[in-house]
Amino acid sequence: MTLSLFRRRRGAPSTPTVEAAGVEPSYAPVHNGRPDPGEVVWAWVPYEDDPDQGKDRPVLVLAVRNDVVIALQLTSKDHDRDEAQEARAGRFWMDVGSGAWDRQRRPSEVRLNRVLRLDPVAVRREGAALDRAVFEQVVAAARPYL
């Protein structure tokens, strides 16, 4: 499952963009205020059941291509307890640990099969870089969806 989205402000309609085919994630975080692969940044992400609504959430940047940020959403909700139910619903998660993207340093999970395409303008702040080894594990697990 993929999601194409350009959000400049809340309530703005989504606009389809490039397909994920051919995306080659590469770890290249640079603390420069711009989203770079390997960084967890914050952006507005729509809800799956109502794309006109959503919330600010951390996302892991996999790649930036043609001024489009390819990312996966993170959550601090623990889906290990309801893993079978999530899988039946078509949602697959992976633990990535904690980091400075969460002020409370709660453990996070990344959604592997909801690929987001974001306008860099929609990204509001950097959180932190994910550990390179964890980034590579996420990329390997998400590869079928890229």
Account of the protein in words:
The protein is mainly β. The protein contains 2 helices and 7 strands. Strands 1, 2, 3, 4, 5, 6 and 7 form a 7-stranded mixed sheet that branches. It is globular.
Q: Could you give the topology of this structure?
A:
Layout: E1 2-4, E2 39-46, E3 54-65, E4 68-75, H1 83-88, E5 93-97, E6 108-118, E7 123-129, H2 132-142
Parallel strand pairs: 1-6
Antiparallel strand pairs: 2-3, 2-7, 3-4, 4-6, 5-6
Mean pLDDT: 84
**Low-pLDDT ranges:** 1-19
Largest sheet descriptor:
7 strands, mixed
Termini gap: 9 Å
Pick out its properties:
146 residues, mainly beta, disordered N terminus
Describe the structure concisely.
The chain is mainly beta. It has 2 helices and 7 strands; from the N terminus they run E-E-E-E-H-E-E-E-H. Strands 1, 2, 3, 4, 5, 6 and 7 form a 7-stranded mixed beta sheet that branches.
